Amino acid sequence: MRAVVLGGVVASLAACGATPSAPAPTTAVPAASTADASPDAPAITAPPAGYTIVPGSRSPDGAWQVLIPTLDSQEGDNPVCETRVVSVRTGALLTRLPGECFFEHQSQIELTPRWSSDSQVLVWLADNKWGSANVQILQLAGGAVASLYDARPAAEDQVLAAVRAASARKYAAARKRGEGNGAWFRDGFAIDVHPTIPDEVRWPIAFTIDITSDNKCMWPASDRQGGVMTATLDAAHQWTFGPFVAGHAACGTGGLVCAFSDCD
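Structure (tokenized):
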């Protein structure tokens, strides 16, 4: 098990490993309006049947919160799984968060919602065993969705290009060995894209991007490839990437890149 500090919050990461299933059909939910963020809106007492509130997901202004399916709701054939941002007072739907959906008490998953102090930005982080599964950034304006951005793809592209440039031979070998690892892996590599949020979400958001070709430490050290880079993301979703520090993961530490050794 790996303990990762996310801005002072310790997230315990345990095994996931499951390949994401095909998207389930969505269900009809009343849409939120600007009135749903108003303190004059009528209050509700509980989330709808089959859903529960994610701990720590309520916005600082008390207007919004995140719901995920309950464990019981996932029984049977083709259960609906949605991650919803809803009005605290009315329950109306603001938006459904894309990416992999997780349900209450799902084994080996850690959910870490973080808001800006003005309740205009939500960073939705979901971790599995090897790293982040979802890093969604929701921006609001006037009680409505202004943008919804998935931070993982661009960060993955950048770090993969850096690894490939460091050693095309090892990259090709890692890609071949990693075939069939599952949808979460990119080109056979485990990539952990993690925001660093000291106390609240502020722009630009700092990230650490770890990568390794051998997340289970099964290969000889000389065959592993990986490293780490830092980055920042601004409110316009523009990235600034730092230099890539090449290295391979130390076995037995439980992290992607917990210690480095020089490698070609």
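The chain has two domains: 2-14+40-150, 152-246. The CA atoms of residues 146 and 231 lie 23 Å apart.
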